[in-house]
Amino acid sequence: MSKGENFRVDFHTHIIPENFPDFAEKYADDRFPILKHTCSCGAEIYKDGKSFRKIDENAWNPEKRIAEMDAEGVNVQVLSPIPVTFTYWADVEKCLELSKAQNDFIASVVAQYPDRFVGLGTVPLQNSDLAIAEMERAVKELGLIGIEIGSNANGKTLDDPEIQRFLEAAAKMDVPILVHPWATVGVERMPNHNFMYSIGMPSETALAAGSLIFSGILDKFPNLKICFAHGGGSLPYLLPRIDQAWEVWPHIRTTERPPSYYAKKLYYDTLVYDPCNLQFMLGKFGADHIIMGTDYPFMLREAPPGKIVEMLENVSDVEKKQMLGENAIKFLGLSKESFIKESE
């Protein structure tokens, strides 16, 4: 596959070890997700003793992933854990143990194929001390280049002091963060129609982004690099209402400027399925803060990667190149040339 002009990075992909550790058996707790292989090319994730999701071998097999990347014109994938494996609810030492296993696995895949993959790790977000320590290990010892976190930790939003301590450490270390929805708001009201994925996750992401904005951390650390999955969920469309609330209720203000000012400092992936929605985001945030991401290899992913970026009208080729790959490289502190050299 050509590594030239149209360089594409899929910033939002998930991976799981083929031999995912069985903590449900080890700790006699069915809440831990486990992987049951159904054949050489497929498996099911089980949680709470029942099937949670069916997956194919591309969820763990790097060679299969590379073949599909080549077929779809993707140069580099950014690997991150599947959110169900965060397990922030667990005893923190057990969560840390599972985080380390996943980080070690992702680092091994990157080391095997450094020209095709880079990795984001996971941490026990419910405990800032252990989360910071594991972030340091993942970045400094394993060579991962960022951390994926959930949108909340046991109901504590991103303005919680414990989570803020972790984010401050990430800012000081210049570690990029991907925020992915999980344990979504209102999930108890969404047992049907898979609304947890289609409605719950976008709502949860907006709540997470709003909590981060109102925390004031972007005044203290303006260079903190955070990207929100799924186009920021419903945040782009709610910003005028959030700004109005900030204007009319002075007692809720915790920032120097209105929320929309800080929203422009954040990053967002392109997974919104519709060029009109993406065009709306461009108007809100600018082409330099939008990063192509597909949610590979799951059913709700965009295929082929970059499809709606290519469909945009009245957008320059330069801006499309930014969204398709250059923004991801910049956000992660990498260079396109390093991947091209690795592959030669």
TrEMBL record:
Pfam hit, one: Amidohydro_2
Record-linked InterPro entries: ACMSD, Amidohydro-rel, Metal_Hydrolase
Enzyme Commission code(s) on record: 4.1.1.45
Broad enzyme group: lyase
GO biological process: secondary metabolic process
Keywords of this entry: Decarboxylase, Lyase, Metal-binding, Zinc
Gene3D superfamilies found in the cross-reference section: Metal-dependent hydrolases
Gene Ontology cellular-component annotations: cytosol
Listed pathway(s): Secondary metabolite metabolism; quinolate metabolism
MF term (GO), any: aminocarboxymuconate-semialdehyde decarboxylase activity
Domain Amidohydrolase-related: 9-334
Entry keyword Nucleotidyltransferase: no
Family, similarity comment: Belongs to the metallo-dependent hydrolases superfamily. ACMSD family.
Record text on subunit structure and interactions: Monomer.
Protein name (record): 2-amino-3-carboxymuconate-6-semialdehyde decarboxylase
Native source organism of the sequence: Neobacillus bataviensis
